[in-house]
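TICKET: design request
STATUS: open
ATTACHED STRUCTURE:
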């Protein structure tokens, strides 16, 4: 069947003085197969016949990233000087952005206040209930305006960078709209460009790669006016590889950036926490800024058109699903880089046998398992690497032996931990962890002593406070989502009983044998969904095995990036431990969960009807004590965040 191609010409921005990105008119190509079916030429996805303009909006929305939309919204809110977060501004939106004032034909998607609000509505509604298709179709306020000009892909534009987003990219607007902020305030048309490796205040050239709803993803072409904060990156692949995002920033600035990311997540996810002005502490640094990663997972693809011996092995190029050949990764430890060399050599020798691409695994390990471990030339390091998914990895984690009466003193020492010039570092115990190469274990060993010590100090201080107020001492610890037992074992000396729960059979077996190998007697581990923990520890449950009195128990939760779930959180509050430590690598999800936890509390305290928790139950009420970011992933935008909650009733 012959495709009839229909090209819709979209006129350039009217009255625009800009000649860069909007210089050419945008062509949106729609190929019509027959009367009832249309193909979006770009995605080649068959879509039942609808109005062409809907397809345009759809293709812009399709890959829009929720985190980027959140960040853009915060930027617009800042420009509009509304110190609001989403939740608190939700009710005011209708008035604030008076929909009656919208001219039906106006370029809705180029009007930042409306993009901000629209993105917010779309992102919340569509990303949360996964009904993007339906809600989009039913949404009566989406303007079906085919004349919305979007930047021309592959064009190079001169941009001004206003701020950094939480994914480490810069948010920019066209340079010749220098008065952009004023434009935004006036509700005028401004399109946003997202450019990696750029800093606030910089003037850059960037190539438009892909258009989304309200923003374009770009490649950085050159920095025309660099920021004073820009430093020379150490890695030869930086700027092309998608693995690192921040090497152009000093380490101190990276730590500041991560604190701001935590603040942004609070603002986006929880009006209750945001409105309470709870301070976020300065990010605790990683002792190793480079050479810290104990695990790498490079990959390769096989293409029929590419000679096998030219197959690149490494990580994706930034903004592309295409592999960049990487011979060395300077954020990985030396043993892991030795492993990378070996793994690349083995793969290249066998490349003819691969029918499709694959992901390699390289993990650092101690040398006490010589049968599987590849020895390094420099055996002084007592480290090696493993390359097979089922190999056993052995890792030592140091924790401080004592918690003194003033753990805050010890806490301040943490800043110098790992600094060879400081001598007053307290005595440490070395715990030995064994786990399978493909299962979860933290990837930056250099910071684990600080992380575990911080958690212990927090629990010590909560305890002190509670004892002062006449509450019983915390004697038990629950480690939910415990993996191979890192927190359970790392914190065990401060508790009488410790119980860990973890869904992975392999990890829980590792946790059990890790307690044994370290001669620890007070730790037990359960395999199963984290939710099951309450049946096992709450005396009220018929299947209770451990009888941990809630008033004498603290719970650590360290779920995967997507966070915990309402069922778990609801039962957590029903159980009502004396303290909760929430460790997270997914900070927005963490504050979403915390907002929910605190919401439960609000429902319970006012005793209103319709609450998820029965009124008769005396449920727990929690207060956030501290918010502490850690830099487990230097040179990248990722941040680990630890929040301490204390029960206040
Ligand atoms: C971020 S890791 C933390 C592991 C451990 N706390 C550590 O630091 O090594 C999250 C862990 O949660 C586990 N997990 C995922 N979903 C779970 C669930 N529904 N119930 C229990 N554990 C789960 C994963 O297998 C993983 O080991």
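STATUS: resolved
RESOLUTION: sequence designed for all positions
ATTACHED SEQUENCE:
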């Amino acid at each position: 069947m012959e495709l009839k191609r229909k090209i819709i010409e979209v006129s350039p921005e009217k009255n625009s003085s800009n000649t860069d990105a909007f210089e050419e008119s945008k062509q949106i190509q729609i190929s019509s197969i027959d009367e009832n079916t249309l193909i979006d030429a770009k995605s080649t996805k068959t879509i039942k016949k609808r109005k062409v303009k809907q397809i345009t909006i759809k293709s812009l929305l399709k890959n829009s990233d929720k985190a980027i939309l959140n960040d853009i919204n915060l930027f617009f809110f800042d420009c509009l000087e509304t110190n609001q977060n989403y939740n608190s501004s939700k009710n005011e939106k209708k008035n604030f952005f008076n929909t009656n004032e919208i001219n039906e034909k106006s370029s809705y998607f180029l009007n930042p206040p409306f993009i901000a609000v629209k993105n917010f509505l779309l992102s919340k509604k569509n990303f949360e209930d996964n009904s993007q298709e339906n809600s989009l179709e039913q949404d009566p306020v989406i303007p079906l305006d085919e004349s919305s000009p979007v930047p021309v892909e592959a064009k190079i534009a001169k941009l001004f960078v206003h701020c950094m987003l939480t994914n480490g990219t810069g948010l920019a607007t066209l340079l010749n709209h220098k008065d952009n902020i004023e434009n935004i305030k006036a509700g005028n048309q401004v399109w946003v460009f997202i450019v990696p490796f750029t800093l606030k205040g910089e003037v850059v050239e960037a190539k438009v790669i892909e258009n989304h709803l309200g923003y374009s993803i770009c490649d950085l072409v050159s920095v025309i006016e660099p920021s004073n904060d820009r430093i020379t990156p150490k890695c030869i692949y930086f700027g092309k590889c998608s693995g690192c995002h921040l090497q152009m920033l000093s380490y101190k600035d990276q730590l500041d950036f991560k604190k701001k990311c935590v603040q942004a997540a609070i603002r986006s996810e929880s009006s209750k926490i945001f409105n309470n002005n709870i301070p976020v502490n300065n990010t605790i640094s990683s002792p190793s800024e480079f050479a810290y990663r104990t695990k790498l997972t490079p990959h390769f693809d096989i293409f029929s058109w590419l000679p096998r011996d030219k197959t690149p092995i490494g990580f994706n190029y930034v903004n592309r699903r295409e592999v960049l050949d990487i011979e060395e990764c300077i954020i990985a430890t030396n043993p892991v880089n030795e492993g990378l060399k070996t793994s690349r050599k083995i793969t290249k020798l066998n490349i003819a046998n691969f029918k499709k691409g694959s992901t390699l695994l390289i993990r650092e390990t101690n040398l006490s398992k010589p049968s599987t471990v590849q020895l390094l030339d420099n055996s002084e390091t007592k480290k090696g690497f493993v390359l097979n998914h089922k190999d056993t990895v052995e890792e030592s984690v140091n924790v401080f032996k004592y918690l003194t009466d003033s753990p805050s003193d010890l806490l301040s020492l943490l800043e110098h931990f790992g600094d060879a010039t400081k001598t007053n570092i307290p005595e440490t115990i070395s715990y030995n962890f064994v786990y399978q190469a493909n299962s979860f274990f933290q990837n930056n060993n250099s910071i684990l002593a600080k992380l575990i010590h911080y958690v212990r100090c927090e629990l010590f201080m909560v305890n002190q406070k509670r004892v002062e107020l006449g509450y019983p001492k915390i004697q038990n610890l629950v480690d939910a989502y415990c993996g191979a037992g890192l927190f359970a074992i790392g914190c065990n000396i401060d508790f009488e009983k410790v119980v860990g729960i973890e869904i992975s059979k392999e990890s829980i077996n590792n946790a059990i044998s890790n307690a044994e190998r370290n001669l620890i007697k007070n730790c037990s581990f359960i395999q199963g969904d984290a939710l099951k923990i309450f049946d096992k520890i709450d005396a009220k449950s018929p299947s209770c095995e451990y009888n941990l009195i809630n008033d004498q128990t603290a719970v650590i939760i360290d779920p995967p990036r997507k966070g915990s779930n309402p069922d778990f959180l609801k039962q957590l509050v029903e159980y009502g431990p004396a303290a909760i430590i929430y460790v997270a690598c997914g900070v927005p999800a963490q504050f979403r969960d915390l907002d929910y936890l605190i919401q439960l509390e609000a429902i319970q305290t006012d005793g209103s009807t319709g609450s998820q928790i029965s009124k008769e139950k005396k449920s727990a009420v929690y207060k956030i004590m501290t918010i502490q970011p850690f830099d487990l992933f230097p040179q990248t935008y990722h941040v680990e965040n630890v929040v301490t909650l204390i029960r206040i009733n």
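CLOSING REMARK: Residues 187 and 583 are 40 Å apart (CA to CA). The longest helix spans residues 448-468.
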